[in-house]
Amino acid sequence: MSRQTRPMASSASGSGSRIEGEPINERTTSTRVARRPLRVPREIAANIAMYTAADDLQYLCDLTGALTIDQATYHRYDPRPYLRNLVQDPNALLFIMRKWNVILSGSRASAFFYPSASTNSSDWDFYCTGGTAPAAMFSMALQEMGAEWEYTHVDPDIEEHYAGCFLILRGTLRGHSVQLMWYSRHQIGAFKTIVEFHSSIVQCFISGYCAVSMYHKTSSRNEMMAWELSEHSNPRKRAKAPGCVAKYVARGFEKIEYSNATGAEKGLNLPWNPRRISDEGCLFIDFKEHLNYPDQYSKALHDAAVEIIKNMGWIELPSGELQASNGVQSPPSSLYRCLLMSDPASRATLVISSEEEDGVSEDTVSITVMRDEVRGGETYHMPWMSAGLSSKTYFIPRYSPI
To answer: Where is there biased composition of kind Polar residues (predicted)?
Structure first.
C-alpha cells in the first residue's frame, strides 16, 4: 500500500522548504512543537494550576514555561480561592476554624482535591471538636460572615447509639447550605466521625492548618473503597451507605475492593493495617506558606498543631472496617497544648443559659464568655443554639487541633 501524502502549496526555496507531496516527518514536527512552551502569562498559568490534577502539574509547567513546579503546587493547593466560593474573606474563615477546632469535611473537602466529588448543591459540612462551647462560638463567628442559622437539633440517625449527643446546626451562607456538627460529649471528636464515613472518597478534610486526603492514591485514580460499617455501632449509617456510595459512583468514581496496600506497613502479615496521616497513602498539604501569621507565637502554634495532626491515626481491619486509634486529647507534654495554655484567652469559661420565657427557650439562649471572676465576661445572644442545652458551665478544654 502506498503511503498517503498531504498536498501542500509550493513555498520559496530554502532549507525550510518542502516539495509538494513530500511526506511530513511527524516525529520531527511533534518534537519541535513540544520543545516550544506556549506563551501563557504567569497569572493565567497560576489560575489553570488551581484546577489541574496534582499529577499533571509538571506537564503544565513544561507546557507553559511560566511556573516552576513549586509555584504550581502553591497555587494548586492554596485554600483561599476555593473557600472564597463560600465566604468573602477566606483568611477569616481559616482563623476561626483554627480558634474553635473546626474542620470542613465530606464532599466539599474532597472537591478541593478532586473537583468532581461535589456539585453546586452540595452542603458545606463543618465538624467541631470539643463539645458545645466551641461549636457555639464558631456558629456565632460564621453568622458574622453572613450565615443564617436554623435551630439545632439532634440527628435521629445517631441519637440511638450515642444517646442523643450528636448535634447538627443547619443554615445558609451566600446561597449555600451549611451544616455544623459536633458531639456534646467532649471525648468524641471530628476525626472519629471522618473515620466512620461510608467510603474513602469523602475521607478528606480541610482544617485551619492543613488539608488532608486520607486515601489519595485511590482517589487520584477516580477510585474509592466502600467501608464495612458496624451493624452494632452504626446501624442507620450502614443502611444508608449503599445510596451514598452510589451517589459518588454517579459522579465518576469507580468502586473497588479494599486492599491493605494503601498504607505504609506492607508485607508484614499484620492482623490489621495501621495508618497515619503522615504515611504514603495520604496527601498532606501544609497551609503555613499561605497564611500570614503576625508573630512567632502563631507560627509555633501552627507547627505544633501540624505535628499532632500528622500523628493522628486509624486502623484498617481485614473486613474492610475502619477504627480511629487516637483520642481527641492532645498530650499534656505536647508543645501545642503548652502554647495554648500560655494564652490567657484560651482559658475562658463559657456559661450557657436557656431560661424559658412563655414556654419557649429558643428566644432566650445566650452564652457568656467568662475570662475570670474579676473581669466578668461578654454575653452573646444565640437563639439558634436551642437543642440539648441547659443552664450549665462549659470549659473550653485543650483538645487536639481537629
So the answer is: 1-16
